[in-house]
Amino acid sequence: MQTPTRDFVAIDRPQRWDHPLDPDMLTRDLGWMLEQPPFLTMNRDVFPSHSTLEDVLRHDCRILRFEPGDMVIREGDYGGSAFLVLRGSVCAFLESLWRPRGKPNESGPQETWLDWLKGRFQTDRPQPPASFQDNRREANRSGNRVSISEKERPVPIQRIENQGGKNRIFLQDIHAVVEGFQSEPLGVGEIFGEMAAITRSQHRYTVVADRPTIILEIRWQGLRLMRRDKTFREYLDSRFRATSLQTHLRETPILRFLDDAAMEKVIAKTRIESLGEREWFSEYRDTQKLDVQTQIEREPIIAKEGQSVQDLILIRAGFARLSFEQGRGHQTVAYLGRGQVFGLPELAHQFRNRLGKSIPFQESLRALGFVDVLRIPSELVLTEILPKIRNSELPKPISHLRYDSGGLVVPDGPTTSTHGPSNLIEKSLAVLETSLVEFLVDERLINGKQTMLIDLDRCTGCDECVKACATTHQGTPRFVRNGPQYGPLLFAHACMHCADPVCMIGCPTGAIARDPDSGVISINPDTCIGCKTCAESCPYDNIVMIQSRDDQGRAAVDRKTQLPILQASKCDLCHELKSGPACQIACPHLALFRIDTSETSSLAEWLLKRASA
Amino acid sequence: MKNLPQNRFAPIADSLAGRIPSMTRIGKRLLPSLAVLVAWAVVRALRNRSAASLENEAFVTGYSLAAVCALLMLLGVRKRFSTFPFGRLAIWQQTHHYLGLLSVGAYALHANFITDGWLESILAISFWAIALSGLIGWYVNHTTPRLLRAAGRQILRQDIPVRMMEVADQAHAIAMSSAGNAETATLADHYRADLSHFFASRRNLWYRICPTGGRRRRLIASLENIARYLNTEGRIQLGEMSMLLQTKDDLDFQSAIQNRIRLWATAHTWFLGGFIVLAAAHILVVYQFADNW
User: Fold this and answer.
1) Can you say whether the dihedral through the CA atoms of A289, A291, A297, A300 is positive or negative?
2) Are residues A262 and A341 in the same domain?
3) Is residue A466 domain-resident?
4) Which of these, A217, A257, A415, A495, could form a disulfide with A571 (CB 3.0-4.6 Å)?
5) pTM for this predicted structure
6) Is the domain of A222 the same as that of A293?
7) With an 8 Å Cβ cutoff, is B158 touching chain A?
8) CB spacing of A485 vs B89 below 8 angstroms
9) What is the mean pLDDT of chain A?
């Protein structure tokens, strides 16, 4: 197909659906799928002529067959597809089977030169089956929510078996595991995994086939097109809300002491609320040009300081700014992310005073981009939740109120942040100065799971990092040693492998995707059609368009127009190198790091280490 | 850019972590220094044993020096293989520094700092040049981050010429706007006489090797001197010109510092190349006349 010329090679411009999810899908299977619900009842007129329902099913779907015990999705893996049960049934576990997985790119130890040398002299040996036998469940998980005690519970063992050249991952003795853990059966016509696919996040639960099952995998791009059908869209939305509410509440640490009855009450009374746009990047680009105070005022408010505490607020997805009014502006004191709670100190204050006088919110909470929150009514918190929490786990009493029932209090001492029961957060905030927190929030660096941080007190600008990156990626570096700067900290323009990777939203081919295991977001050059959607979506300008090149380094041009063929390029954390990111390894001054800036504790820990080095 | 005091977190770190940072720092340097001392003592002992057995001790010290030099060169090789899992480059660089120290000790044992013969003299000069450039490199690497930070927000080397052009254009625009009014024209005259060259040209070689703030101070002082001839509008323009002058000087400074580190790396590599050729010639000559020993 390729016509080599002197310096470039002419090829056909890549198109959407050049690489279907299942290239071997039979027309017979396609016909059968169209006769199954919900596709049978879908309104085909809402699909445009260039991407009909048949096209979507043919290119963005594949039929998967599972035996009893086979794992369909595993908690902690990143999701990019939804799954629809066509035949049989599956079991979705409502609680964690294993302890939480590691952070991106921390799935295993990095390869040392000794390992590398060993690898050169060793022949390929079959790997022993992965087992989670040694993994212990979180010690503090609820012991009274299920009737079986911890000792009686079976330890789920994951096995890998090679069948016909394909690895089959299954849970040993599935029936015992189903009996030992809370689970929900899902039958024909039910969909799962869509939550992780829509929010570009990790699966919160494991799903296992409990009988011979046929499942249709629908990749995110196809799912987005199918949402054109109103009934299907409404079904997805209602399911998304119901499932996410239940899963999140069951995972929330402060609710772990609740028994089943109390938990059911909480689930029934909790409201889910979404603020901001899922595609928040375009609005962010516009508001970034405004001054900081105007930006803050434009952020959707979740809870306002001085107002009475009606609900306990749980962040389900996204990030929120915690701030209070200071003079004519707003001072940011922290940012809260998934799993964090707002309003607990105020409710605990009221609870400690034996349900006496209530105090209003001491700080405001504003949505940064898209945020999902759960609201648990305060009466329920005071009567059902707080009495079951140990005193030591309650937040410290508020020593200096900023607001009381009469309004703003004139401070007689230093006012401190009241939010969050976690000591870790308090310690982090002691280290991170307010202006640094404000900087991280304003630049939205709070989204980064692997933010490239350069310590300018060590960096000499020798560019060894850039050279190493270029060497690893066919001569084109995938980051720029420049970016937002806070004192000696330079947050370089390198992909941060975000908690909420908005770059993935619009990709029509699924070329930009997150690795389910490591969490690394990378671009598949074979399926990237150079549409620039990801580059334009990235709020941090960390994706650039470069000329596509073949294996011999020749630039690709369109056979018809002779115009260059572009492809998106970004940092892939050198996921193919076992030694870790080349830039980091190549820095001779130990100036370049990768930090999880989505959590204040990681940055605080790093700053402490830096100060004591 | 916001400022963060350098040791802002040190007291918190010490109290929270319960560590004694100075001990860690000493430990980090003490152990490799001891290793260098031990290695040097071993070479010296081998030389003494060789001398005691009436052998030519120069072979022992010479090969020891050659071995150390070969190890020193491994850093350059390592840099070219960034995709191989050979450990962090920082560790290699640290090892390189200590081996450099050892090489000086080994050289002292081999040549007693004094050499005769033209080839040996050139070889000695080449060795000292490379050792000195290494020492300068160590100093440059340690001082560059501080100097770059002092020059404000770090700008990529390749972006500096563009920024300089922008600054020069802005200065020219201010001068042109002041030229039309008799009460501000002094600024335009001063720009044409003293400043236009500063904005449009690169700094001299000496500045690029050892940048100082002397010229900037002189030019700012000269600007302040003409303030009395300007009206209010002219003084505002003078303030803007003064800011641009500082920006240009910062850019010159950043350019000089960033180029200096590259110049040093190139010089160190060239000295190394020359040394390898001369050392190879020296070994050949030694073996040519080895029978006489």
Assistant:
1) positive
2) yes
3) yes
4) A495
5) 0.76
6) no
7) no
8) no
9) 82
